[in-house]
């Protein structure tokens, strides 16, 4: 079972390829993809940047830069934002890819 819940074959295929403009969640390979995912989740839960930043204990400027793919965003604060947005990070070897078709 995929750690992100129930998915279809098409969704899993897109997740293996990475996040795109049309995919909300999945594998990320760039700071821009991470930022796009965070922005999508924030909008999905219907909160403004100012509110989301306050909930996560970070500044609005930090959240804005993170959503815009800032490469040097502080890891601790980034993980803090992800947790408060209800997003989890999973790390596993490529050989153990849960999205790999069996």
Can you put this structure into words, describing what you see?
The protein has 102 residues and is mostly helical. The protein has a domain at 27-88: 434 Repressor (Amino-terminal Domain) (Orthogonal Bundle), CATH 1.10.260. It contains five helices and no strands. The chain has helices spanning 9-17, 31-44, 49-56, 60-67, 75-84. The protein is globular. Residues 1-22 have low confidence and may be disordered.
Question: How do the helices and strands line up, and which of them pair or pack?
Answer:
Elements: H1 9-17, H2 31-44, H3 49-56, H4 60-67, H5 75-84
Helix pairs in contact: 3-4, 3-5
Strand element count: 0
Q: Would you tell me which CATH topology of the domain at 27-88 applies?
A: 434 Repressor (Amino-terminal Domain)
Rg, rounded, reads 14 Å
Instruction: Indicate the mean pLDDT.
Output: 81
**Poorly predicted segments:** 1-22
Structural class: mainly alpha
Task: Give me a quick take on this structure.
The protein is mostly helical and 102 residues long. The protein has 5 helices and no strands. It is globular, with a radius of gyration of 14 Å.
Question: Key terms for this structure?
Answer:
5 helices; 434 Repressor (Amino-terminal Domain); globular; single chain; disordered N terminus; 102 residues
